[in-house]
Design a protein that fits this description.
Blueprint lengths: L1 E7 L6 E7 L2 H10 L2 H10 L8 E6 L4 E8 L2 E7 L4 E7 L11 H9 L15 H6 L8 E5 L10 H19 L4 H31 L4 E5 L4 E6 L2 E6 L3 E8 L11 E7 L4 E5 L5 H8 L4 E4 L6
Parallel strand pairs: 11-14
Antiparallel strand pairs: 1-2, 1-3, 3-4, 4-5, 5-6, 7-8, 8-9, 9-10, 11-12, 12-13
Helix pairs in contact: 1-3, 5-6
């Protein structure tokens, strides 16, 4: 026997609706009919809410599966039994959820009693406390995407220099310089090429490094999920062995200067987060980590 409880936000009073015993098909229909988009919009407009839009399934052994949403980018799954709990984030981004599992899949596993074969339960809560404790509202998730990032601002200056360079070349073609001026003009030409060519090189290499990458950080849990075309990596702040920020501008937060963050984990794995993926100052503040800093006039990877 499995029962279903639905929590919704309303204008004056939050509503809890008990649907009693349900079948798998009835539960899937209830999930699809749930007004997730309207409820999330209501949640974001509130300064404070006593609950979040959710569906809660409970079986005869008091095992509980809760489906939450506080944004349109992902669902959050919390599974609890008498020994512990597990918390999953099901992103709508295929890079962060390569298996494509959705809430419906976990509902199906909960009904078929094989959910513990798929998820890893943290057995750190006593049975008594687990039964009496309330599910905490999931923490805010900071998400950065290479595809959503405003990247072309880093090419403003090199494009201006390139256009000026091409303009001068056209003028020199129309009015050839004197032989005495040629060496000086070649010198200026080399400087111009170094300026726009160097920044273009950094832009291309940074883009290759974080192409289609997505970074998610739990504001409270300090858990990080990094995904790119090579795979997915999940780790906590306590697993970070060292981090280094390389920056090129006079000020680290300068939006026009190239910089990147390199994080080395205790497992030996390393990830590189460039300014084309995320604001590195925000990442550092979100993780509350102390990084080494190094200035470089040419911060290549």
């Amino acid at each position: 026997m499995i029962t279903l409880e639905i929590k919704k936000l309303h204008l004056f009073e939050d509503q809890i609706e008990s649907m009693g015993e349900v079948t798998l098909e009835e539960c899937i229909i209830a999930f699809h009919n749930f007004p997730w988009e309207d409820q999330i919009e209501e949640l974001t407009q509130r300064e404070w809410a006593s609950t979040v839009p959710s569906m809660i399934l409970t079986d005869e052994n008091l095992n509980r599966l809760s489906i939450y949403a506080n944004n349109l980018k992902s669902f959050q799954i919390i599974y609890e039994n008498d020994r512990g709990s597990a918390h999953l984030i099901l992103s709508n981004d295929i890079l962060l959820n390569p298996n494509g599992n959705g809430p419906e899949d976990y509902i199906d596993m909960f009904f078929n009693q094989n959910i513990e074969e798929v998820i890893e339960v943290d057995y750190d809560i006593s049975g008594e406390n687990a039964e009496e404790s309330e599910i905490e509202i999931p923490d805010e998730i900071l998400q950065y995407s290479f595809n959503d990032r405003r990247k072309w601002q880093y090419l403003r200056w090199p494009i201006i220099v390139l256009l000026a360079n091409l303009t001068f070349l056209m003028l020199f073609y129309v009015n050839p310089p004197q032989e005495s001026e040629l060496l000086f003009l070649l010198f200026l030409q080399m400087i111009a090429i170094l300026i726009w060519g160097g920044d273009l090189f950094l832009f291309v290499t940074y883009s290759i490094q974080n192409f289609n990458a997505v970074l998610m950080i739990g504001n409270e849990t300090k858990k990080v999920m990094y995904s790119d075309r090579y795979g997915q990596l999940i780790f906590g702040r306590d697993q970070i062995a060292d981090c280094l920020i390389i920056y090129s501008g006079k000020e680290f937060q300068n939006e026009k200067s190239f910089n990147y963050l390199r994080i080395k984990l205790k497992s030996g794995k390393t990830i590189t987060i460039t300014c084309l993926l995320a604001d590195l100052g925000e990442v550092q503040n979100a993780l509350k980590i102390n990084c080494n800093w190094r200035h470089s006039y040419f911060p290549s990877l």
